[in-house]
Design goal:
Oligomer: single chain
Structural class: alpha+beta
Distance between the termini: 24 Å
Radius of gyration: 35 Å
Helix content: 55-70%
Length: 464
Amino acid sequence: MHTIQERLTGLDGRARQLRLDTFVRLRWLAITGQSAAVVGAQFGLGLNLPFGWCFLVIAASSWLNLALRIRFPASYRLNADSAALLLAFDIVQLAALLFLTGGLQNPFSLLFLAPVLISATALPPERTLALGLLAIGLATLLALVHRPLPWFADGKIELPFLYVSGVWTAILLGTAFTGVYAWRVAEEARQLAQALAATELVLAREQHLSQLDGLAAAAAHELGTPLGTIMVVSKELIRQLGPDASPAVAEDLALLREQVDRCRGILGKLTSLDGEGEGDFLTTVTFSHLVEELVAPQRALGVVIDASCHGEGPEPSCRRNPGVMFGLGNILDNAVDFASTRVAITGQWNHDRVWIEIRDDGPGFSAEVLLRAGEPYVTTRSVEQSQDGGSATVGLGLGLFIAKTLIERSGAQIGLSNTAGANAHGAIVRVSWARHIFERGAVPRHSPEISGSAPLPPRDIVPI
């Protein structure tokens, strides 16, 4: 998982680096709009503008764009500091243009929001805050110091200061609201993309492990013939040299025979995966076997694990699914981590449904986790746990999201709740399938009916 975290960190840094070509294109669009506004006001409406000074300010943006295009390739990606500097230049350039054309009395003064909005969607919050303060500071200066608003040659207009104050307030509130809103939306999109990338990485790893099972069985089959030849030759050597062999040779022959027998035993276990009665072991597993396979790696960790399986009718079987096994294993790992002394995993089935319930006697889920369970970057591990447990307990909050995604791909539903009762405590995770979905694609297995107690009554489950 550490490797996955490192790869996700690289993806996050890469996602925050905007291409220089994006900035250049957006600035050319702004230059075109500014030029059209100045030309239209001067020659179309006949307003008295400082035409030369306005185009000198616009030309500064054009020169910067040309210099960036010549100096860097179109695919170059900017770091956070470089992007913030370019956006700061755009704010200053817009402020200079507004200074020449009426300050905040100019209706185009709301364009102060544009650079802050771009920063909020792509840059860290610190850079966005700095750009927002720069925009507000320049807007405040323009409210007090600016050239007169251009107007027709035979008249002059001066808007009241109360109106200018309202425009300043609108810019302030708009900068704050749009900045926070855009940052939040973009951040959630980035987190979701990273979480899905983590899921794909896990699936790829599990797919490789699943393929290794098949390769092991194939290797066992191919090695059977040469190993049989070695066995025959060793027997013949023992028969011919046994009576007259020196103690050293006899010891070597005995060791050879012992190692050959050991190899045959190992290959026998591998080839038994494809033997009679287990013809589709690599792809089909019974429900009780699935539960035991989940529990087995956890039994040596010091926490008591009670596992049981019972239900109505024949025991269900399913296709072996690495994603489901990883997701259930992740949930069981969390239960073991947070349990005080005991974890109970119960597998049950009836004629319509199959479900697994994992309970622990730990502190249970917090209210935040129950409300946002299954969303990426929602972690149940506190700072205290991270400090006590070291780096092994520090997580990105992706575990439950990955488990949920992997398990729900198989058609399952997941519910979280806490143990009810005055003195009771602990977390409950319940994963359930419709039986026909659980058994989809599995090789039929004929198992005797197992009688058992009735399924547990449903509790207050929080659906994800």
